[in-house]
Design brief:
Layout: H1 4-10, H2 17-20, E1 25-26, E2 36-42, E3 45-50, E4 53-57, E5 65-66, E6 76-82, E7 85-90, E8 93-97, E9 105-106, E10 115-121, E11 124-129, E12 133-137, E13 145-146, E14 156-162, E15 165-170, E16 173-177, E17 185-186, E18 196-202, E19 205-210, E20 215-218, E21 226-227, E22 239-245, E23 248-253, E24 258-261, E25 269-270, E26 280-285, E27 289-294, E28 297-302, H3 303-306, E29 313-314, E30 320-322, E31 329-332, E32 341-346, E33 351-356, E34 360-362, E35 369-377, E36 380-388
Antiparallel strand pairs: 1-28, 2-3, 3-4, 4-5, 6-7, 7-8, 8-9, 10-11, 11-12, 12-13, 14-15, 15-16, 16-17, 18-19, 19-20, 20-21, 22-23, 23-24, 24-25, 26-27, 27-28, 29-30, 30-31, 31-34, 32-33, 32-35, 35-36
Length: about 400
C-alpha cells in the first residue's frame, strides 16, 4: 500500500487503494447505453435488464455481452432463477433459457403481455402481468393459470416470496397469499400511503418502499407496517428499489440516488459518491460488490468499503471500536498508557479531526456519513472505517 500521507497531499487520488474503492464506479463496458431496469446475480453470472435486451457479465460487471437470441421483445423487466433455468420477464411475456442465457424460448401459453416481476416457491413460478394480475406456472412456464382472487388493484408491481408466503406490491397497498396465490388478502395496517413499489426481506423483517411515502417495515409478516424513513425527505421518499445484504438495507430513490441503513431502517445515509444517475431502479449484491441499475447504466461499489458488518468493529487483536455505527462518540478498548494519536478522514481523504489517543473519541461535531480512522502508535499504524449515524 502506498504511503498514507502522500495520498492525503494528492487529495483527488484519495487515501489508499482501500479508500479509492469506497465509491461507485461505472461498469458499462459492452452494455447498451441508458436505463438498467434490473440486475440479477446467479453465482458468477450477472444479468442486466435493459430496453435493448438482456446483457450478461461473468466478471462482476467489468464487461457485458448481449444475450438476446430467441427473445422477441427487447424491453426486459427482470429475471428469475429456478433450478438450472433462467427466466426473463419482458414486455412480450416470459422467456426461458436452459443454457445460461445463450438461447431463449417463449413460455407464454395462457399468458402474454408486459410482465413486471417474478418470484418462485420451489418450482412454482409466479409472474405479475401489468394491468391484469398474478399468474402461476407449475411446469417451468409451459402453462400459466391466473391467480388473482381477492386483488383489488389492476396495477400490481413487485412480488416476493418469504417461505411459502407471497407478498405483492400494488397501487392499493400490500396483498399477501398463503395458499400459492389462490386467494389474496389486503394487509395495509399502518400504511398512510398505499402505492407500494418495492420490497425486500431481511431475516424476519420485511421492508417495502412506497411511491411517495418512504420505507415501512413489518416484523409480523405484514400484519402491521411501521414507518422507517428517518433521514429521508421529499423526493428521497420515493422508494423505487430495495435490497438487503446481511444487516444492511439499500434503498434506491427516484431522484436522489441511493441510501444505506445500517440499523434496519432506523436511519438512512446517502451513498452517491461516483454514482451516475439519480433514478435507481434496481439494487443487487454478490459476495464482492453491490450493484445499482440507474438511468445512466450500471454501477458497482465494493461491499468491503460500504458495509460495517457488526456493531463492535475489531481493528486488530488488541483494539476494538464500539459502537459502530456511532452517534456522538465511540469507545476504544486500548491501553492509553501508550503514546499515540487518532486521526479521522472523510471518504474523500480530507483530515477532519486529530486527537491524542483516548478511550472515548467524541465525534459530535462531525456530520453523518462514513469515515476512516487511523491510530498511530509509535511505528505501528491501525486503520478502519466507521459510520456516524444519528
Amino acid at each position: 500500500m502506498k504511503n498514507f500521507y502522500i495520498f492525503i497531499l494528492t487529495a483527488i487520488i484519495i487515501l489508499s487503494s482501500e479508500i479509492v474503492n469506497a465509491q461507485w464506479d461505472a461498469c458499462v463496458t459492452g452494455l447498451a447505453f441508458g436505463t438498467v431496469r434490473d440486475i440479477a446475480v446467479n453465482g458468477s453470472d450477472i444479468y442486466a435488464a435493459t430496453y435493448q435486451g438482456v446483457y450478461k457479465s461473468t466478471n462482476n460487471g467489468s464487461n457485458w455481452t448481449k444475450k438476446n437470441y430467441g427473445i422477441t421483445n427487447d424491453t426486459i423487466s427482470t429475471f428469475l432463477f429456478v433450478d438450472d433455468k433462467v427466466f426473463a420477464a419482458t414486455r412480450g411475456g416470459v422467456f426461458m433459457s436452459t443454457n445460461n442465457g445463450t438461447t431463449w424460448v417463449s413460455k407464454n401459453s395462457g399468458m402474454n403481455g408486459l410482465i413486471l416481476s417474478m418470484t418462485s416457491i420451489g418450482s412454482n413460478i409466479f409472474a405479475v402481468k401489468w394491468s391484469d394480475g398474478v399468474y402461476l406456472s407449475t411446469d417451468y412456464g409451459d402453462n400459466w393459470i391466473k391467480k388473482s382472487e381477492g386483488l383489488t388493484s389492476l396495477y400490481p408491481g413487485d412480488i416476493m416470496a418469504k417461505g411459502n408466503t407471497l407478498f405483492l406490491c400494488t397501487g392499493d397497498g400490500m396483498f399477501i397469499s398463503t395458499d400459492f396465490g389462490d386467494t389474496w388478502i389486503e394487509k395495509n395496517n399502518g400504511l398512510t400511503i398505499k402505492d407500494v413499489r418495492s420490497i425486500t426481506v431481511n431475516e424476519d423483517k420485511i421492508f417495502i418502499g412506497l411511491q411517495s411515502g418512504g420505507v415501512y417495515m413489518s416484523s409480523d409478516n405484514g400484519e402491521l407496517w411501521i414507518p422507517k424513513s428517518n433521514g429521508l425527505a421529499g423526493p428521497q421518499l420515493y422508494g423505487y428499489a430495495l435490497s438487503s445484504y446481511k444487516n444492511i438495507i439499500f434503498l434506491g430513490t427516484l431522484s436522489r440516488g441511493l441510501f444505506i441503513s445500517y440499523d434496519f431502517g432506523e436511519n438512512w445515509i446517502l451513498s452517491n459518491y461516483g454514482l451516475g444517475g439519480n433514478a435507481i431502479g434496481t439494487i443487487a449484491t454478490d459476495s464482492i460488490y453491490v450493484y445499482a441499475g440507474t438511468d445512466m447504466g450500471a454501477f458497482r461499489a465494493r461491499l468491503s468499503d460500504i458495509i460495517v458488518d457488526v456493531e463492535d468493529k475489531r481493528i486488530s487483536d488488541d483494539i476494538m471500536i464500539s459502537p459502530n455505527p456511532a452517534n456522538d462518540f465511540f469507545n476504544l478498548n486500548i491501553d492509553i498508557t501508550q503514546l499515540g494519536t487518532i486521526q479521522i478522514f472523510s471518504i474523500l481523504g480530507e483530515k477532519v479531526m486529530e486527537n491524542e489517543l483516548a478511550k472515548r473519541v467524541v465525534v459530535s461535531k462531525l456530520p453523518e456519513g462514513m469515515y476512516y480512522m487511523q491510530i498511530n502508535l509509535g511505528n505501528k499504524i491501525e486503520r478502519t472505517k466507521f459510520v456516524i449515524m444519528r
